[in-house]
Write a structure and sequence with these properties.
The protein is of the alpha/beta class. The chain has five helices and seven strands, in the order αααβββαβαβββ. It has a seven-stranded mixed sheet, sandwiched between helices. Strand 6 and strand 7 form a beta hairpin. Helix 2 crosses helix 3. The protein is globular and about 50 Å long.
Length: about 220
């Protein structure tokens, strides 16, 4: 039975479908979460009104979990992933793993969350690069996150400006890095794949010491 049928007829999902299809399903889910996330963010279900990166991420994960249960996706989502399989360092903000007993629950797809802009001027370029190897893209380039998998993602919360501004700005930061740091290349620029009033969906490839990692960037408009 194909994966799309599993999503809507409530049959037992088959995790044995090709990994490429799993990644496509994860991308589909991540985009479908956006309107539910945005609706919840402006609701009165909590008293804290000035939300930080962790708050946004928590709400996003919760809304994703609801859709995963509703449509029987063949994977689950959880926050703060410690990699006990490939032993990459640090914690991904969240990750997707197989929804099946007696199989590995290692990450299928790791995601790092970032606010746009960063909350502090000193961390201005943190979507790309930061202190102590903490930049969003940087973490995947150095395999601090996503070791052993070649497709990962970043979730951006656009609080000021718009997606075009941030794509231009981030690509300029990468261009500047490529001129001074041999580990960065001009072909690591972001390119837009899909855009609407709620989100922009972009793609890029980051070069690692051994191979590349394909990155998807989902930017949710929250301003």
């Amino acid at each position: 039975m194909i994966a799309e049928e599993n999503l809507y007829n409530k049959s037992n999902p088959q995790i044995s479908i090709p990994n490429t299809n799993i990644i496509l399903l994860i991308s589909k889910l991540m985009k479908s979460v956006v309107p539910h996330f945005k609706s919840y963010v402006v609701s009165d279900f909590y008293q804290k009104r000035k939300l930080n990166e962790d708050d946004f991420t928590q709400i996003y994960i919760e809304q994703a979990q609801i859709l995963i249960r509703k449509y029987d996706y063949p994977f689950n989502i959880n926050g703060q992933y410690r990699d006990i399989t490939n032993l990459s360092k640090g914690f991904s903000d969240f990750y997707f793993y197989p929804n099946e007993q007696n199989v590995s629950t290692s990450s299928l797809f790791s995601v790092e969350s970032k606010r746009l802009p960063s909350p502090e001027k000193s961390r201005e370029k943190e979507y790309v690069i930061g202190d102590n190897n903490n930049g969003g893209i940087e973490r995947y380039k150095t395999e601090k996150h996503g070791k052993g998998i070649n497709e990962c993602g970043l979730l951006g919360f656009v609080e000021k400006e718009n997606s075009n501004h941030w794509m231009t700005t981030i690509n300029q930061w990468i261009k500047e890095l490529a001129q001074t740091d041999k580990n960065w290349k001009n072909d690591e620029f972001l390119s837009e794949l899909e855009s609407n009033a709620d989100f922009s969906y972009l793609g890029s490839t980051a070069h690692r010491e051994n191979g590349d990692v394909d990155l998807t960037h989902l930017w949710v408009i929250v301003n």
